[in-house]
Amino acid sequence: MSDVQVTGINKKDRFSSHEGITHLGAANWKWTRAAVIKSIEEKSNTFYTLVNGNRGNIGVVSGQNGKYVRTYADGKWNDNLLSLPELA
Questions:
Q1: Is 35 helix (H, G, I), strand (E, B) or coil?
Q2: What's the pTM value of the predicted model, to 2 decimals?
Q3: Which Pfam families does its entry note (predicted)?
Q4: For residue 84, what is the DSSP state?
Q5: What is the average pLDDT score of the chain?
Q6: Span 28-45, mean pLDDT?
Q7: Is the residue at 25 inside a domain?
Q8: Residue 88: inside a domain
Q9: Partners of 69 in the β-ladder
Q10: Domain tally for the chain?
Q11: Are the C-beta atoms of residues 24 and 47 closer than 8 Å to each other?
Q12: Cα separation of 76 and 57, whole Å?
């Protein structure tokens, strides 16, 4: 199992919520949200963000439109993913 840092995302549009994230990745890789969710659920990889020196573990959350990814840090779900830059 790898512990993988996510440094960027793609969203349907710039105002999208967590459910609007389509891809997660870094400089040398880019996965669909569905692939990241599958990897987390199968426990084949863990994913995290590092924003201002604070680690946020990425987990799977069920919303009214299905499963999506969100960061969890300091004992609560937060918006670290949405603060990441857009991937190329």
A1: helix
A2: 0.88
A3: DUF3892
A4: S
A5: 90
A6: 97
A7: yes
A8: no
A9: 60
A10: 1
A11: yes
A12: 11
Tell me whether residue 36 is in a domain: yes
Answer whether residue 11 is part of any domain. Answer: yes
The pLDDT assigned to 13 comes to 72
**58 with 49: CB under 8 angstroms?**
yes
Residues 33/68, Cβ–Cβ less than 8 Å: yes
CA 21 to chain centre: 8
* Cβ-Cβ contacts under 8 Å for 15 (sequence gap 6 or more): none
Would you mind telling me the total number of residues written for the chain in this entry?
Answer: 88
Domain range enclosing 75: 2-83
In the structure, what pLDDT confidence band is assigned to residue 63 with cuts at 50, 70 and 90? confident
Distance from C-alpha of 10 to C-alpha of 27, rounded to nearest angstrom? 13
Nearest residue to 61 via CA among 77, 83, 81:
77
The β-bridge partners of 23 are 10, 32
